[in-house]
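Students often ask why we bother encoding 3D structure as a string. The short answer is that it lets us treat folding as translation between two languages. Here is a chain of 186 residues written in the first language.
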Amino acid sequence: MHVRTLARGLTAALAVTLTLAGGQASATPAAGDRAAAPRVLTYDASASAEFRAAVDRGAAIWNESVDGVELRPVAAGQRANIRILADNGWPRAYTTTLGNGTVYIGRQAVGQGYDTIRISSHELGHILGLPDRKPGPCSSLMSGSTAGTSCRNPYPNAAERAEVEGNFGAALTRPAGAPRDAVTVG
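And here it is in the second language, the structure alphabet:
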């Protein structure tokens, strides 16, 4: 959301600069601003039981990490892109199409000591088009359970962020490790 504000600010600054330099400027939004709008996906966590806060945090982590897609709780009376359920099995995601499917936050993994927020972020990553990458280090969100129960990292790494941006056609992306307001045009 900060990226779109920054892009609009840069567009306005460029228009002022061109005007001061004697060039033509336009007050209408640039095509790039329209392309920078994220694809909004809604999720229904009403059946996620004790994992509701972890699900909301997992969605917030993706919203902080990528610009091409935004996860929002579904409004009452609307149909969600993603259903999130709690059950006694192992966590899993069933994707019907990119950005649509069902996530199960399984109590079996939680009972074994896996972090609920990492589970939520990982399973939402599947809905966003990412495969498991096992075995893998804790720095890879999609390494899942192979990172071990001591791994608490719920954030996607640079490659995972870039893949999701590519899946959703983000026009603006942050360089790896850059603050949220830093962007490169891609």
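Translate back mentally: The first strand starts at residue 39 and ends at 47. Keep this in mind for the problem set.
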